[in-house]
Amino acid sequence: MAEVSELVSILELEPIELDMYRGQTPPGAGSRIYGGQVVAQAMAAAYRTIDDGRLCHSMHGYFMRPGDPKTPILFQVERVRDGGSFAVRRVVALQNGKQIFNLAASFQTPEEGFEHQFDMPTAPAPDTLLNEEELRAKAGLDPASRRIWPVEVRPVDPAPQGVAEVREPNDMCWFRARVSVGDDVALNQCALAYASDMTLLDASLRPHAVDWDSGRLQVASLDHALWFHKASDFSQWHLYVQDSPSASGGRGFNRGSIYGPDGALVASATQEALIRFR
């Protein structure tokens, strides 16, 4: 149950003052905090101020400084507006008195309305694919040489380990929480937000034959946006369909569509990332 306790504990923020919360980073996080963690914790902080059943339908965040995993993060929530159907929150994430991330999120009372969506593309079933740890082992690498995430990822078309080659700027993978985080919609949204930053910038690197292990690659998420269309259970397999329409100026722009196991489009993502090769 280590994976559950890690993912859930990341989202269990400590209240320290009215609309202010403290979040921690689990051990083994490396030299800087993973961006998806800060996104998910900021969403969790905003949710702490929503008490009428409204659900997040969109969030937009900017990363300003790398986070220090050894230092707790303070999340200060501003209650911007509580309207008849929608509520808006702004969250500032702070370390050592400086902003490392800020987020704006909107929440809506659930209602019925028009519905349509793009169909989920055809993809191999997840049980026919290898996860990231198995791919490393197959290549003769130590699976434990990299962090074991609380989210399992199974790439549909993985790049060969240690080989740099030009590929199309699109990608697909299946991903899910390794063990259930429960049936709470808000918690599942936060878990999905955590995972949504894991592979998204890769699409913008695929056309450029980048060697991740060269020591010359500098990457970082600059901003991140999510739209939640439908509730889902993130302990089930979700298909993450990603593409990159453009890269320029040392930045790569990426888009993602996240489908649930029944083919429903449950969320959409966009991100611009720093992609420098020195």
UniProtKB/TrEMBL annotation:
Family, as annotated: Belongs to the C/M/P thioester hydrolase family.
PANTHER family cross-referenced by the UniProt entry: ACYL-COA THIOESTERASE, ACYL-COENZYME A THIOESTERASE 8
Span of domain Acyl-CoA thioesterase-like N-terminal HotDog: 29-108
Keywords: Hydrolase
Domain (Acyl-CoA thioesterase 2 C-terminal): residue spans on this chain: 170-272
Parts forming coiled coils: none
InterPro entries for this protein: Acyl-CoA_hotdog (IPR042171), Acyl_CoA_thio (IPR003703), HotDog_dom_sf (IPR029069), TesB_ACOT8-like_N (IPR049449), TesB_C (IPR025652)
Protein name per its UniProtKB record: Acyl-CoA thioesterase II
Keyword Hydrolase attributed: yes
